[in-house]
């Protein structure tokens, strides 16, 4: 099997776990559809207004809700750039969603500016209560004044960790294509906790690092928070934050812990961004980050600031990845995505940014301290730049694509089968629209997901899940 095809055989420490010992054939041609776990995809009208926004298998329905520009329940305006999201059980069979808004620039905070972390920053989160069929019950701002809130992760103590994918601030010069850092009042690049039962404090967990954060995954056995870094133009790292007290005992994530970065044992600065051989697996160790919250001299170049934390880890031998994005914890394993990991197929153009491939899925086994490759895309027609991920009750991963052409929600089963579940219908005037924030609601009845576009909206999808692989 080609080295850029699916991992054929993998057993770690004599135990075959999920995604171990699997094979996947992938697509044989750029125009040929991958096999679907639920059947062919067809255009389905949105139950909200009858417009076709998604293509789904037979028997599935959806409703969109809480689009950008609409009103919150308190009358404020819903911001755009819907991104990472988590679902929690709500009263009466509803779901409580906490949703990121990846808004950049010094455009001013939405919601109550007096409670904002930085009144000049336009990102943050909203909290929504919805039915299993996407009927919006209530929506409010929950964290405001943050910036470029890309993803994060649900926490077992009923909280969402929201992550800023930037290091902007008044001490940093404007990033390429950006503007307004001099108007910001606070440093950015942090993790923020958004609890369900009380108001967000809008105070960052500074010891968890100031870097281009993406996702967060919680290991309940140790209390560690695993963090991904999406540094678009530079190498990225895989981190863990060890809080001073187990969050389940503290009831929240405490500041003042220790930040570490993954390194491959006996391999200094191992480059895992490149194409990997079949069966790739590595013993790992963790190196400490001595200064997780660096301050900078006035107007430090953005490219220098955004690498300040990662360079500390790589100086001690930490591994190199290409754009780490989605992460999820499942049964002792943290699955995470390297969006541009791997090699570029001769049939595909070279992607912009750091990394030459069309995507990798990695698994870090917390119990064995082993890292293994789960999947590497052979070409864009099979899997094109995976981003956010979640996991179903059956252990199947849901991959949100952020590719150059049609974008899909794809499933990757524990047996290694990759299939198409949903395709995003083209959005007029916005070819860059993408899926983000997939999360299953209570009981697995509904898959909630966002479409990040120039506006953005959320969706509830339901149907005969038992018929297929989710």
From TrEMBL:
<dbReference type="InterPro" id="IPR006311">
    <property type="entry name" value="TAT_signal"/>
</dbReference>
<protein>
    <submittedName>
        <fullName>PhoX family protein</fullName>
    </submittedName>
</protein>
<dbReference type="InterPro" id="IPR008557">
    <property type="entry name" value="PhoX"/>
</dbReference>
<dbReference type="Pfam" id="PF05787">
    <property type="entry name" value="PhoX"/>
</dbReference>
């Amino acid at each position: 099997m080609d080295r850029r095809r699916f991992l054929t055989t993998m057993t770690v420490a004599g135990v075959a776990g999920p995604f171990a010992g699997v094979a996947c054939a992938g697509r044989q041609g750029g125009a040929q559809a991958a096999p679907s776990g639920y059947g062919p995809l067809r255009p389905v009208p949105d139950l909200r207004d009858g417009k076709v926004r998604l293509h789904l298998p037979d028997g599935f329905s959806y409703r969109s809700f809480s689009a950008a520009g609409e009103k919150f329940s308190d009358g404020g305006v819903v911001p755009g750039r819907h991104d990472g999201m988590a679902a929690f059980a709500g009263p009466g069979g509803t779901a409580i969603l906490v949703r990121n808004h990846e808004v950049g620039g010094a455009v001013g905070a939405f919601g109550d500016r007096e409670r904002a972390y930085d009144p000049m920053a336009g990102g943050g989160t909203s909290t929504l209560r919805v039915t299993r069929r996407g009927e919006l019950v209530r929506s409010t701002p929950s964290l405001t004044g943050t910036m470029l809130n890309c993803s994060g992760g649900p926490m077992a103590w009923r909280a969402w960790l929201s992550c800023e994918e930037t290091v902007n601030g008044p001490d940093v010069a404007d990033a390429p294509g950006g503007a307004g850092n001099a108007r910001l009042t606070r440093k950015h690049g942090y993790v923020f906790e958004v609890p369900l039962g009380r108001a967000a404090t809008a105070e960052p967990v500074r010891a968890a690092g100031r870097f281009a954060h993406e996702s967060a995954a919680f290991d309940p056995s140790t209390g560690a928070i695993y963090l991904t870094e999406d540094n678009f133009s530079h190498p990225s790292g895989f981190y863990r934050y060890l809080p001073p007290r187990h969050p389940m005992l503290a009831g929240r994530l405490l500041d003042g812990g220790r930040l570490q970065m993954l390194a491959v044992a006996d391999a200094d600065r191992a480059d895992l961004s490149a194409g990997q051989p079949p069966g790739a697996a590595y013993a790992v160790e963790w190196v400490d980050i001595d200064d997780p919250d660096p301050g900078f001299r006035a107007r430090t170049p953005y490219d220098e600031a955004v690498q300040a934390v990662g360079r500390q880890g790589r100086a001690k031998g930490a591994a190199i990845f290409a754009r780490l994005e989605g992460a999820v914890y499942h049964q002792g394993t943290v699955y995470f995505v390297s969006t541009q990991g791997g090699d570029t197929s001769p049939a595909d153009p070279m992607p912009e940014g750091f990394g030459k491939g069309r995507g990798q899925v990695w698994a870090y086994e917390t119990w064995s301290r082993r890292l293994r490759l789960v999947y590497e895309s052979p070409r864009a027609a099979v899997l094109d730049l995976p981003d956010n991920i979640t996991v179903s009750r059956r252990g199947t991963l849901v991959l949100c694509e952020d590719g150059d052409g049609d974008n899909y929600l794809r499933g990757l089963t524990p047996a290694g089968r990759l299939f198409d579940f949903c395709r995003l219908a083209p959005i007029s005037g916005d070819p860059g629209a993408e899926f983000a924030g997939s999360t299953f609601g209570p009981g697995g009845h509904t898959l909630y997901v966002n479409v990040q576009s120039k506006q953005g909206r959320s969706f509830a999808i339901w149907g005969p899940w038992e018929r297929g692989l989710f």
